[in-house]
Amino acid sequence: MALRDWTRTIAGGKLASGMARLNARHPWSHNDHFHSWILANLPHQRRSALDVGCGRGELVAALSPYFTTVYGNDVDETMRQQATSRCSGLSNVTIHDGSWTDVPGPFDLVTMIAVLHHLDVAVALQEARRLLAPGGRFLAVGLAPPSGLEDIAWDLASIVTNPVIGYVKHPWPNTNGVQPPPIPTQDPTMPFAQLQQVVAQVMPGASMRHQLGFRHTIAWTKPT
Question: Is residue 49 a contact partner of residue 107, using CB atoms and an 8 Å limit?
């Protein structure tokens, strides 16, 4: 968030407000953008999947055609209600209202999109590993505050490309102005390099990569 915080200090915050207006004209969901990455990296065995922090249920619905059963879980009651409504016609989908660690597994897929930084990272990764069946995959899309030169370079690239991607995805200008986030948000605190160390300890061999859209991805397959 360093560069974005910096833009708020330039010219009394005019740069940041101008960028916000530009991005609002062509809005796009940074989280939904990575659904295609999830679907392109599904495990070979597709019996059961769990989406932790399922929000409004977009990813749960997208996973439904590929798995025998799909569970979505979210701590926010409003999000669960919206996910339940969205998936009401999908007989193989269940929106769970308890702790995600109590959802009956094992799972061939566990996903988290913009969720891991809300949790105790090490504990959450260990629980995800426990819930996975042998050969199952953990796929996560996350956020981390930039702390090194590589992080800052990716943050700058995301700032520059954000309105371009928005124009491609949403070419017709939105006239409603800057809107509040549709889902509960929280700023991440663990830098990418530190998170990478924790992931390597719990999930040896995991692939963790910077991505545009102020995001990174984590992919790991549980050994058989």
Answer: yes
